[in-house]
Amino acid sequence: MNVFQLYQFKSGVIHHDHMNRKYYQAIYLNPSPTPEDFSLLDTDEFVSEKKILSKKLIKELNFEKIEVGYNSSFLFSEFNVKEFFIYSSKKQYLKIEFTGENSEGLFGSTLCARLETTDNLKQKCIRLHIPINKEKSASQCAFYIGLEPRLRRANLKLILESSYGHITNNASIKIFLIES
User: Fold this and answer.
1) In whole angstroms, what is the distance from residue 45 CA to residue 41 CA?
2) Any domain includes 124
3) Which end of the chain has less Cβ packing within 10 Å, N or C?
4) Domain CATH code at residue 92
5) Residues 129-156 pLDDT 10s
6) Average pLDDT of the residues of the chain
7) What is the model's pLDDT at position 11?
């Protein structure tokens, strides 16, 4: 076990500074953590595949090139989630999946989802610089954001923010409505 965890530390899976209980549980003795597992470094919302009752693709966005300057952001999309909301007593989440061919700028870049109403704001941001993503290669990330009843009429903004600049080619974002 110690040798395996040393391997995880050297490969960056065990983070030197940002570990938390949920993330550690997800990667403990896990040889192949998923993008959803890595999202637990930055968010506490997670839905186990075993607990998903339904999964519906509600939006897909494709971009030939995304270029974000120093200390800047790129707005992928903004739309009202009530268009896709299904009235249910089950817990509902949006799952955001991002893939692309990264040219530069993983470090210091985050993908953010903001749910906004006139009197509520919920934001989740995850880092793009995770061990499965390397500079100048294909990259991916995924995370969940809960749709509490007060947010089921919210506007969703998807934003890529970068401190040092970022370029991704052939980017794709998929947004799913999940019930668990």
Assistant:
1) 11
2) yes
3) N
4) 2.60.120
5) 988 888 888 999 999 999 988 888 899 9
6) 91
7) 82
Q: Which domain holds residue 137?
A: 34-179
For residue 132, being part of any structural domain is answered with yes
For residue range 102-131, what is the model confidence (pLDDT) as tens digits?
988 889 999 999 999 999 999 999 999 988
- The count of domains in the chain is 1
The 3-class SS string of the chain reads CHHHHHHHHHCCCCCCCCCCHHHHHHHCCCCCCCHHHHHCCCCCCCCCHHHCCEEEEEEEEEEEEEEECCCEEEEEEEEEHHHCCCCCCCCEEEEEEEEEEEEECCCCEEEEEEEECCCCEEEEEEECCCCCCCCCCEEEEEEEEECCHHHCCCEEEEEEEECCCEEEEEEEEEEEEEEC
For residue 127, tell me if it sits in a domain: yes
In 3D space, the residue among 167, 145, 168, 143 whose CA is nearest the CA of residue 156 turns out to be 145
Inter-residue contact 27 to 8 (CB < 8 Å): yes
d(CA 106, CA 53): 33
Residue 23 within a domain: no
Tokens of 117: 């109403």
Q: What pLDDT is recorded for position 73?
A: 96
Length of the chain: 180
Paired strand residues for 67: 167
